[in-house]
Amino acid sequence: MNAVLDNVAASTGKSAEKIALENNKLHKRLCRLVGQAIGDFNMIEEGDKVMVCLSGGKDSYALLDILMTLRERAPIDFEIIAVNLDQKQPNFPDHILPAYLKELGIPFHIENQDTYSIVKRLIPEGKTTCSLCSRLRRGILYRVADELGCNKIALGHHRDDILETFFLNMFFGGKIKGMPAKLVSDDGKHMVIRPMAYVKEEDSERYAAVKGFPIIPCDLCGSQENLQRKQIKGLMREWEKKFPGRVESIFSSLSTVVPSHLMDRDLFGFKDIKADGQANPLGDIAFDEEPCSTPTTVPGIIPLQQG
Ligand code: SF4
């Protein structure tokens, strides 16, 4: 057990056995959820070469770790190569990832590109640098995927990243739009996948502590954290505390979209709908108060009776 967990044991008063059991459950849960996302979205297929983008943050370490476990068990054959982009940020500890990956015995590539200087040169002091930095990083990673012959690019975004993006787009962008679990890259050549899409950030955080991943801080560039994202994260944490199950329910709503009950005329042909005289048990109940159909997945909440 590592020092972090010793502290957990001391602060929670749980026995070492109980903690080991919980950790084992956590590992199983992550494997199940990552496996489920891969299956649901057909993310990885026979013969794929998957480039796992490793930033040194908790989520990308967890992604690599779980993918390696799943590859051992998978009935299909696929390759994994870990890639880190060293953006030459001041004080970036460039020995940590190579040492970790060598120890793991996995093929890896470190791409050295000084995007830090470019961003500093082009963006005036005090302005947010993340947007240009991410664009540069994206282009470089696509090129590296080409050079390494990788057809899939795996990113470590988790459920909470997806929800935060969803709320950011809704609150500030006027769009119902999240972060896809699978998409074609904007150069049209690669498939980008997010196998951690069903994993809660809290679990990823705990897993990183359990495994003692050598985390590299993400604020070395000196950029300020996106305040709007920070606020939404705070809001979600508060909901989770006050209304257990709410965040889970919102996440589940992203997979249960009813275009006929939204307002997007491109998504649903409102102009052409006709009353054809056929009763539709799933049709609207325009004059009734809409009951909330509580998802059965929300623990501790009994679904409302319909009808
Ligand atoms: S936090 Fe720094 S390294 Fe990360 S995207 Fe923003 S500018 Fe780039």
Ordered list of secondary-structure elements with their pairings:
Elements: H1 3-12, H2 16-40, E1 49-53, H3 58-73, E2 79-86, H4 96-104, E3 108-112, H5 115-122, H6 130-148, E4 152-154, H7 159-173, E5 182-184, E6 191-193, H8 201-211, H9 227-242, H10 246-253
Parallel strand pairs: 1-2, 1-4, 2-3, 4-6
Antiparallel strand pairs: 5-6
Helix pairs in contact: 2-3, 2-8, 3-8, 7-9
What does this entry look like structurally?
The protein is 45% helix and 9% strand. Strands 3-2-1-4-6-5 form a six-stranded mixed beta sheet, with helices on both faces. A hairpin with a 6-residue loop joins strand 5 and strand 6. The C terminus is likely disordered. Bound molecules: iron/sulfur cluster. The site of iron/sulfur cluster (SF4) has 7 residues, from helix 6.
Keywords:
307 residues; alpha/beta; six-stranded mixed beta sheet; 10 helices; 45% helix; binds iron/sulfur cluster
Within the CATH hierarchy, at the fold level, what is the topology? Rossmann fold
Q: For this structure, what is the CATH homologous superfamily?
A: HUPs
CATH architecture descriptor name: 3-Layer(aba) Sandwich
Content of β-strand: 5-15%
Give the termini separation: 53 Å
Q: Main sheet: which strands, in order across?
A: 3-2-1-4-6-5
Rough outline: globular
Strands, count: 6
Give me the secondary-structure category.
alpha/beta
Note poorly predicted spans. 295-307
The largest pleated sheet is described as: 6 strands, mixed
What's the order of the H and E elements?
HHEHEHEHHEHEEHHH
- On the 0 to 100 scale, the average pLDDT is 89
Q: What percent of the residues sit in helical stretches (DSSP H or I)?
A: 40-55%
| Ligands bound, unique | iron/sulfur cluster
